[in-house]
User: Which sequence fits this backbone?
């Protein structure tokens, strides 16, 4: 059985704001980030439920774009992969950006923004 491959994740000090904004500009990727921000780390299978009609190759591309922009970590966990938001690192590199984007898009969609708020502890 082949070993599960670790994927490279960029150091956020090397990530430019334009890369993050580009990754968040796609509605499917933005919805995926919103899901993880709201519900916590997800398996790749759960993430794919965001857009079940999307081809597997498109979904893989979305995950790769989010990972390469420094927004998510995609790590092996047994036979699955877990996708988590790099919230603390993002907030340190780009203070308030993620909360602002998530809050604004949630208000545009008519959703409650309570999940976008962070504990300040």
Assistant:
């Amino acid at each position: 059985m082949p070993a599960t491959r670790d994927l490279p994740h960029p150091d956020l000090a090397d990530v430019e704001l334009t890369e993050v904004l580009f990754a968040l500009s796609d509605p499917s990727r933005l919805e995926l980030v919103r899901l993880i921000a709201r519900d916590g780390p997800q398996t790749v299978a759960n993430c794919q439920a965001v857009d079940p009609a999307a081809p597997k190759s498109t979904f893989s591309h979305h995950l790769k774009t989010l990972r390469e922009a420094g927004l998510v970590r995609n790590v092996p966990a047994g036979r699955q992969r877990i996708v988590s938001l790099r919230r603390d690192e993002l907030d340190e590199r780009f203070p308030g950006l993620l909360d602002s984007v998530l809050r604004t898009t949630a208000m545009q969609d008519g959703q409650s923004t309570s999940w976008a708020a962070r504990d300040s502890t």
